[in-house]
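user: Please supply your own:

assistant:
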Amino acid sequence: VDLAGQCPQRQAIDAIDMRAIDMRAVQLAAGEDDIDAVDLQLGCCDESCDNFDDDTSHVIPALIKKILRAQSLDENHIVVWGDGSATREFLYVEDCVHGLLAAAEHYDAAGPMNLGSGQEIPIAHLVGLLSDLIGWKGAIWWNQEMPNGQPRRVVDTSLAQSIEWRAATKL
């Protein structure tokens, strides 16, 4: 599905539709073809060499780039979409890989299992944390005419914990 150029609401609907198709495919494969299949839902994955492209980057690299740009140009503020109240969960890519392996070895239930860090952070706190780590002392201007996005994006990791898996990397 090519989601380029679509509004965020349409992208979300398409992603939900694709997710439903994916879940059904796993159920059919496991039930009809007697295939061992694990349906995993992943939290937002981040890695040290993430994508920093202005148009396609994820939350953390986009904010890092914005802050570093402001610092290098000696700007006294950055503009961030929304009001900072939306929360997100981030899963380090190495933790994700360990979770995938643990699920393949130990999870055999029919339903989906979530992999996530279990740490939820408001975007406003994330921007402050990144600014502090980078050493930039500028102001954050919240553009409330732009969307916050989904108010909360965090997954229930209780099934992953039931197979003794937890993300090791804290934000």
About this structure: Confidence is low (pLDDT under 50) at residues 1-7. Residues 8-32 form the longest helix (25 residues).
